[in-house]
Write a structure and sequence with these properties.
Elements (H helix, E strand, L loop, with lengths): L1 H21 L13 E4 L4 E3 L5 E4 L4 E7 L3 E6 L6 E6 L2 H4 L2 E4 L4 E4 L3 E6 L1 E3 L4 E7 L3 E8 L2 E8 L5 E4 L3 H11 L2 E4 L2 E4 H30 L2 E3 L5 E10 L2 E6 L2 E6 L9 H25 L3 H17 L6 H23 L2 E4 L2 E4 H9 L3 E3 L3 E3 L13 E3 L8 E5 L7 E3 L8 E3 L8 E5 L8 E5 L3 E3 L11 E4 L2 E4 L9 E3 L4 E5 L8 E5 L8 E3 L3 E3 L8 E5 L8 E3 L39
Helix pairs in contact: 4-5, 5-6, 5-7, 6-7
Bound molecules: zinc ion (6 copies).
Length: 586
Amino acid sequence: MLKKLLPYIFSIIICNTIFAQSLTPPLPVKESTEGYLNTSAKEIQLTPSVKNFFITQQSELPVYEDTPSYIVVLYEKDDGSLLFKIPKVIRYVSLMLMTDNSKKVLFRGAMEADTIPIKISAGEELPVDRILDDGYIVFLKRNNLLFKVYVSKSETGISFSKKNRFDKYAEEQKKKNLYYYKGEWISKEKLDEIKKEAELQEAKRKDKLKNVKAAAEEGYMVLKNSEILEGRFNGIAKDQILFNAGGFERWIKLDETADGMNTAQIVSIGKIFSAGKMLEKANALYVNNELGQAMRFATKCNNLLKEIQDNSNPDLKAKLKAAENLSDKIMKTLKAENKSLYNYQVFKTDELNYHLNEKHILFRNSIWLKPEQLCIRCNGSGLIDCPVCNGLGYISKHCPNCKNGFVQCTICEGRGWRSCPQCNGNGYIMKKCGKCNGSGYVSVTSLGGYYRPYRPVVSPGVIATSGGIVVNIPPTCYYPSYYYNDFSYRRVKCDICGGTGQMQVTCPKCNGSGRLPCPKVQICPVCGGKTIINSVCNECHGKKKISCPDCEGKGYHGKAQQFPPTQKNNVENQPPGKGTEKMSVP
Ligand SMILES: [Zn+2]
Ligand SMILES: [Zn+2]
Ligand SMILES: [Zn+2]
Ligand SMILES: [Zn+2]
Ligand SMILES: [Zn+2]
Ligand SMILES: [Zn+2]
């Protein structure tokens, strides 16, 4: 108990000392519109309304105090809570189960417990919940428990006040132009300044979020740790942005992002970063003597840098210069080797000039053609839609198994009914006879007669039991039947089932018909009821396209244009006329 209460006691002492120094009364544990009760310099004890109380089974009550020898639980009541002190003896402990991290006790059985007084410390201020004729219902806070207690008006050492002590003190301070802010009394001017500053910070935060989000939407984020992310904006929640960088999605807090940058600045940093990577790639390609591809990346890098609107970034000029330098180097290298670029492909300059002068077109980045050499049928792709399946990749045909998606039912073979499985089509089932309970025999009252035992008797003259009846077999009687005259019961064949023990009853499943209704048709298993079946096209093997028959899949007719030109270059390269066009469909 002391262990748990000590911090509390200390906190009161510490609070009181601090506030005694600063003269600021503590804030009430709860605001009240009714008013507050104040205790004087003396501790008071509130006598409980009852001496003991019956705790019902399955009650779960919060722990108020826990000591090695007893436990105090709180029973919250709107008209005045009670404290129960329960000694830790086997009799009680066995009924109690600590729950909620030992913050509560679950009573597995009912018990009668004694109540104890509730202590109110000297100088404590209690918010009033409501005022009664003879007393007050006030709020009390102990160990994070806020509950209501009853304080009688006749209790000595209490006084009522409409306002709490803190508010009263604050009013006095206000006259001196002092306002409470986070444990300090400050001037109105200072308070306004603080408020203004807080508003400013909030505005800054909103502005930052707006800028960071806009930049993220353009694909870039810059973090405080100088990390630059390039990727895709995927969403926003409160102060966090969901960003996918390099295929990896993560939440980035606004606090993690770099401060003091607007959207254009963030985007420019991102683009310069991205351009830097392209430039690296371009340089590597240049070193590898892949001049066409090196130029492609250098140009990409240059274009990206030119998109940047924020010119203040010093890296921008450096990167632009580097990109231009690389382009120059590539061009110089090409010139030295008498080579030129066309569509980022390297050609000998005189060869390129020849083709361009002749208005040849570069086909698939590798060969030169006269424009009329391009295959009209396949538009140069070398592929046409498969004529057999019309480019579908499959051929549809009517289902050979059915006419309308249905076939004859395999269960009933179209009869419309099937044999009842419960009675095997008999219409009746056998049940144990109710009269003889399946034995086939019933006992009847009788005065005498011959008895034919249904169980063989060991030998005449010996006592045997039959169906629970002791039978004294007369020595004169010979097996298998004997006379008796002094038994009141005798067993005879059951008249209902004729001794079979079984009875025929109408089958409840088919109501005696032996048949159950069955649909005459079923969905065709071949086409699944769709009436058509699709099979992979034999011509294109499902690829939808076939090699163009006009150009044999090359995409052009004749031979590629050579440099230097040979004399008979164009003679045999005319595309086939309409009359000679071969059909691909057999
Ligand atoms: Zn079918
Ligand atoms: Zn059927
Ligand atoms: Zn049946
Ligand atoms: Zn029977
Ligand atoms: Zn096809
Ligand atoms: Zn073609």
